TrEMBL record:
Domain VOC: 1-127
Top-level taxon of origin: Bacteria
Protein name in the entry: Glyoxalase
InterPro entries: Glyas_Bleomycin-R_OHBP_Dase, Glyas_Fos-R_dOase_dom, VOC_core
Length: 127
């Protein structure tokens, strides 16, 4: 068994698609209409056949409450691996991304946390 799709709740699918592709650099794999929303799945440019990230609309009250609570508590919604956290921090900062935690060493890894502009905090990690 392996993880093939994971999801993240977003406030606005169009805004999220733009941020996750244009700013973060993910590749759009699927964009399929499903009722009033869309099945938008992204992949890493380094592993286009790997795990997909689904940009899930937070229109359900439970999803919105979950997203609001973890964000207000400073808890990242998910974690992305990067080769060099400081380099990624500098690149994203130049693109206007707001970080809530600058690159910080934590044992054998370095982490940073940013706001995805769609209701989530995202952690990046370099092992």
């Amino acid at each position: 068994m392996k993880i093939i799709v994971t999801s993240i709740f977003v406030q606005d699918q169009d805004k999220a698609l733009k941020f996750y592709t244009e700013t973060l650099g993910f590749i759009k794999k699927h964009d399929i209409p499903v009722g009033e929303f869309r099945w938008i799945a992204l992949t890493s440019p380094d592993d286009q056949d790997g795990t997909e990230l689904l940009l899930e609309p937070n229109n359900h009250p439970a999803a919105k409450e979950y997203q609001d609570k973890i964000s207000s508590e400073g808890i990242p919604a998910t974690m992305f691996g990067v080769e060099d956290v400081r380099e990624e921090y500098n690149r994203l900062t130049k693109h206007g991304v707001t970080f809530t935690m600058e690159p910080t060493a934590m044992g054998d890894m370095t982490i940073a946390v940013f706001d995805d502009t769609c209701g989530n905090l995202i952690q990046i990690v370099q092992k």
